[in-house]
Design brief:
Layout (H helix, E strand, L loop, with lengths): L16 H18 L13 H7 L1 H4 L4 E7 L2 E6 L2 E3 L2 H10 L6 E5 L5 H14 L4 E5 L2
Parallel strand pairs: 1-4, 4-5
Antiparallel strand pairs: 1-2, 2-3
């Protein structure tokens, strides 16, 4: 029995193409058989369309805290109520429903420390969704 010595020049062996072509065809047939044809997402009915008719989404009113600087005093407005300090605003935030989140609207005159404080108060009150909104 004659054993061929291993190639010492670093040549690569030939790539067997026939088994690779067989595997590619098998994969192609597999994906063609198992694929399902689905309609484009633009044609799929949305479940939100049914919810719109019930009026539940319209029942949520956005809760907006507006922070402004009047003179040298920072004021916090929640709806029609105006608060002069953060502690009373934090107490009012505790009373609000938390599902809709909270929008913090800030004028360009308001200091960032007040904004950060209100965001922290909202987090402490249990608001998971807090959105910063710059005022126009």
């Amino acid at each position: 029995m004659r054993v061929r010595p291993a190639s010492t020049r670093g040549e690569l062996g030939e790539l067997p193409l026939t088994p690779m072509i067989d595997v590619v065809f098998l994969l192609l047939i597999y994906f063609m058989v198992t694929a399902t044809i689905t309609p484009p997402e633009s044609r799929v009915a949305s479940t939100l369309q049914g919810e719109r008719g019930s009026g539940q989404a319209r029942d949520l009113k956005p809760q907006i805290v507006t922070i402004d600087l009047t003179g040298s005093t920072v004021t916090y407005r929640l709806g029609s109520r105006v608060f002069a300090d953060r502690e009373s605003l934090a107490a009012a935030l505790e009373q609000l429903p938390k599902e809709g989140g909270l929008f913090v609207r800030v004028t360009d005159r308001a200091p960032w420390s007040a904004v950060a404080g209100v965001m922290q108060d909202a987090l402490d009150a249990g608001f998971v969704k807090r959105t910063y909104v710059p005022a126009d």
